[in-house]
Amino acid sequence: MDESTATTESGAFRPPGERWTPISPKLAIAHRLSLTLFILVPVAAAVVFAILGWQLAAIATAAATVVVFVWAWWLIGRRVRSYGYAERADDLLVVRGIMFRRLVVVPYGRMQLVDLNAGPIDRLLGLATVQLHTAAATTDATIPGLPPEEAASLRDRLAARGEQRSAGL
Amino acid sequence: MTTPDPTGVGTPGATEPRHTHPLTPLAHAAQVLPVVVAAIFFAGGANVGTRVLIGLAAAVVLGLVIATISYLQWQRFTFWFDDSADLRVDSGVLQHNHQKLPLSRVQSVEVNEPFWARLFGLAELIVEVAGTGESRVVLRFLGRQDAHDLRNEVLARAAGLEASTPAAPEQVLNTVPASQLLLSLLIRANTLLLFILSGVLLTTAFATGGLGALSLALVTGGVPLFSVLGEFLRLYGFTVASSPDGLRIRKGLTTTVANTVPPGRVHAVGFVSGPVWRRLGWVRVLVDLGGNPGSGDRNAQGSTVLLPVTTWPEALEVVQRVLPGVDLSAPEFIGVPERARWRAPLQRRRIGVQMTDRAFISQRGWLNQWLTVVPHGRVQSARVTRGPWERALGLASLHIDTVPGPVHALVPHMEEAAARRVLESELDLAGAARSADGPQRWMRDS
Predict the structure, then answer these.
(1) I need a surface site. Which of B161, B202, B218, B252 has the fewest CB within 10 A?
(2) What is the pLDDT of residues B26-35, one digit of tens each?
(3) Of the candidates B381, B403, B437, which has its C-beta nearest A104's C-beta?
(4) In this predicted complex, what is the ipTM?
């Protein structure tokens, strides 16, 4: 299911008439890389069981690992596609999640800080994360998986609008 | 104090550097007394004389060490006002430290009397200004009267008045009688249930002669007893008074606290009442305060209580002072659909939201019922969330984010489309309120 065409959405999260920008599908590569590294632990366990001659345990572990791996692989794709952001006249909208869907709206006048981060895997793949902070700790507006140029220009646009509309606390 | 004087007219002159009270090292050293009691109590050997000796030795050694360190610090600690309305502090034994607090940006001035300092007739003064980093000065300790005088002087200088200006007149709005406070703490539903449980356990313990139930009763009865006692000591003698520089709050039995809440720092107000309290028409009022989050350390929890227990009319009267013009009398709330009962059968009828011209008002909760008020101009951001249950029912929850604090403005399980509609109207109202407020310089850097 492609969330960007989202026919199941009744309008609370992505009502028509807003220009939504998806994030880079390369974020899925980064997440799948972490998944692959993580899955090596049960794989190693299965190998150890096989060497010890515990056939049943080895097969059960391997089967469970494969199921989890395939499911997580598929889920990562959906999760990344579920992200989106929209710049409106007075605020920024960020939407994400499938099972736990959420929409965050941050008025430009309330932004205190715009962060631009890129970890080692992110840099390798050419990705960056933009995070918005307000005086509320619960704001939680993070846009991962942006191409660095897009992230930098987004940050600059947000900072400029924030400066214009800043209203103190 | 919310109206800084940018022109600096009437800035009073500089003062000579001053020390804190000479008894300060002794007051610090006195804090080892509980250690002594513990040492006497826990030191092995049945001989009482030995225990007392060990305790005294521990007291002398520890007391001397602390008194010496504290004396050296006291010697180096001086404070004064310079001629440009700043409070300056020089301190540090090994590493020299200099602090300069611009009084025109004062956020709060607090006089505390910690228990050990009180024994010596001492108090501490805490001055906070807007800004990050070293925005807070603790003068520990001053004579009680001296601390109150200095507090007035700081507030007067902050307003650009003569240093000797008497304290702004205050009008007491509400005092919480000790009996009402104690009763209110004892009859909270969870406390009450634990006490009943302990009673049942004790009865069974005595009836059956089993000691397992007895030790369990000690926990189920002891924990709530201690929390009631702690809260009672902290909130004893709670007094709210109104003065030109904001609401003045005084509280505490062993450690007393006197602080000022400028109206501009209140970002959200929450009224909460449990099932037993509601029978009596009682309510607690909590606030989210802007400014320097997390700097209230020891009293952080207490300082967000605007009224520990009161009746609704009295609560509304005090809230009118911090959120002037907010109307809480409108009866119609936008509710949640019938099908929300599959997600929240008990609180469904209680959930509601309304937007007046000044504030976002929401209510929720079944056992502990909340009514939260956020002025439109204080909304930081907004969220709509939907979990799997809500998704199946076509529901979504609306959250209004405010500065960190105990109040959470939240409307759970709304009709999905309605959640978005309310969100958009709130954003419009918040935007309009922001532009009407204009930039607030004195809060800008916090």
Answers:
(1) B218
(2) 888 887 777 7
(3) B381
(4) 0.86
